[in-house]
Design brief:
Number of strands: 24
Distance between the termini: 49 Å
Shape: elongated
Number of helices: 12
Helix content: 25-40%
Number of domains: 2
Bound molecules: MU-OXO-diiron
CATH class of the largest domain: Alpha Beta
Radius of gyration: 24 Å
Structural class: alpha/beta
Strand content: 15-25%
Strand order of the largest sheet: 1-2-7-8-9-10-11
Length: about 400
């Protein structure tokens, strides 16, 4: 889209759509649906640009700005977050409006100076409650450290009840539509959940506090315009409520089984556990890791209560394909989850103990320890034990 789009009187979306990106943060995050880099241009007696875009898209941003007003008139450049996808075009924009004031947090300033030491720019450090008047509208800042970087902040326009929270409440979706009332909300919520689970989950306690802080500030929020994906204008409460639930680690009666297998023994155990969970009245999702995207599995875990991880033993260790999921979970520290490790072995075991140590390192409480193991191939009684364990876990989850 080569045109800016008004999202309120005198406030324009001037971002870029990245239709083809399939991995974000290097290979860390799969983006099956692409993404957008949203930036917002506020034209008033004084003009402000809120965030920029990823550097390869800077010409698109500049072209959109020029269609509205010559960027030399930018008085304030708000940098909510200095990561490359939002501040990559910072030097190009500063080149067009060298007298603009940069508004950012203290940590944002430190990051900008480190990244762009050759640039000399005027800046004002803002804190929660700092207010800058543009004319008919103003900008109110809310620091949001660790959501998800130390420099992060939100910008609020009180006169429009518009919150621009940068990464928070965003989703990686490339779309020709810009608003929540123009798209399939199931897809948007699915991507919002994936974003939260894979990026924001470790900061859940801070998110709970930030939501409480915003509530105490009595800010009316009619529109949430994040820096990725769809703008929430019909129902911003939907994403606010979802964040409150996710931050608390609230889970449904749902379990996720993630495993891999060498000669199908561990797979048979996985299916017996699945049968037990389902017959116990629990929703269950099963993923063979070598065929699955682990970011999607982590998204499924967001509203689940239990994670069952299975691996056979190979070289006294777990299968290499199982490790990345556990590595991610150790960093993400999901809240209020119950874990179970299982697997088969041949001459010597060990995988299941390693799985249990990794689950504990991710702060996941074990349902039973040790979990079920099978030598060579599962016999009917082994599968019955897995089935029964699945039923017992379902009962615990439903509690
Ligand atoms: Fe933390 Fe969208 O960058």
């Amino acid at each position: 889209m080569n045109h800016p789009l008004a999202i309120a009187e005198g406030i324009y979306w001037v971002g870029a759509i990245d239709w083809n990106i399939r991995h974000f943060h290097g290979p860390a995050f799969s983006t099956h649906r692409g993404t957008t880099y949203n930036a917002y241009y506020i034209v008033d007696e004084k003009t402000a640009l809120v965030d920029t875009v990823y550097e390869p898209f800077q010409e698109e941003l500049i072209a959109k700005l020029k269609k509205i007003q010559d960027p030399v008139k930018i008085e304030y450049l708000v940098v909510n977050h200095t990561e490359n996808d939002h501040a990559g075009a910072f030097p190009a924009i500063m080149n067009l409006c060298p007298t603009a004031h940069v508004l950012c947090t203290q940590r944002g300033y430190e990051s900008l100076k480190d990244r762009y030491p050759h640039l000399d720019f005027q800046y004002t450090i803002v804190k929660t409650g700092t207010r800058i008047t543009l004319g008919k509208r103003s900008l109110l800042f809310i620091e949001a450290p660790m959501l998800h970087w130390p420099d992060s902040m939100f910008t609020y326009v009180p006169e429009e009840s518009l919150l621009m929270p940068n990464d928070a409440f965003g989703q990686h979706i490339a779309s020709s539509a810009r608003f929540d009332d123009q798209v399939d909300l199931g897809i948007v919520m699915d991507e919002a959940a994936k974003y939260y689970a894979n990026i924001l989950m470790p900061f859940s306690s801070l998110i709970t506090k930030k939501l409480e802080e915003i509530q105490k500030m009595n800010l009316e929020i009619k529109t949430i315009a994040p820096s990725h994906g769809i703008i929430w204008r019909r129902d911003p409460g939907r994403i606010l409520n979802a964040y409150a639930r996710w931050a608390e680690g609230q889970g449904a009666a749902k379990a996720v089984i993630a495993y891999d297998t060498m000669w199908l023994s561990t797979e048979r155990m996985a299916y017996a556990l699945l049968d037990g969970l389902v017959s116990g009245g629990c929703d269950a999702r099963l993923f063979k890791l070598s065929l699955s995207d682990r970011n999607d599995i982590i998204k499924e875990l967001l509203d689940a209560r239990a994670l069952l991880v299975g691996s056979p033993t190979i070289n006294n260790d777990i299968l290499p394909v199982v490790s990345p999921l556990l590595d991610d979970l150790v960093g993400l520290r999901p809240k209020n989850k119950i874990g179970l490790a299982f697997g088969a072995y041949g001459w010597g075991g060990g995988a299941q103990k390693i799985l249990e140590e990794r689950l504990k390192a991710a702060k996941i409480e074990l349902f039973v320890e040790p979990g079920p193991t099978v030598k060579w191939v599962p016999k009917p009684e082994d599968l019955q034990l897995c089935y029964q364990l699945g039923r017992e876990l379902a009962a615990r989850i439903k509690d």
